[in-house]
User: What shape does this take?
Amino acid sequence: MDIGEERAPELRTLRQKVEYMLEKTFPGQKVSGRTFAELVKERGGSLSHSYFSNILAGKVTQPSEEILKALGLGFGVDWRFFKEESEVVGDVVAGLQFLAMRRTGEIGGMAARGADEDGLPAELLEFALSLLADTKAGQRPDGAEDGEPERP
Assistant: This one.
């Protein structure tokens, strides 16, 4: 490691991630729960100051997706930064598998209703990949094997 190069901190818990973002987003400032809650509200989200304080106290470890999105709004980062590592890894792996199959032509065009600016949900990607795997294995989505008549 070079002199002056900062080591990446270990950010495993929600509390560690929020403390890190407070330090990086508001350097040298003491940001209260009320101030942060107001910032989230100004940016279109909702987060109570007491809930934010409970996150900082380590009392909240598994908040809802809505809370994670509110944290993302408040800090100006992608909300998935605050997800548990295992969830993020699953999302990334599914996305990479999907992209690889698009590049190799195994998956052609695709249209998704309900997709938002975050892209396709990991569950939808995993479902699409499972359908593709079934097709490669010779099974049709209706459960019949290739060559069999379609099941009603």
DSSP finds six helices and no strands in the chain. The radius of gyration is 21 Å.
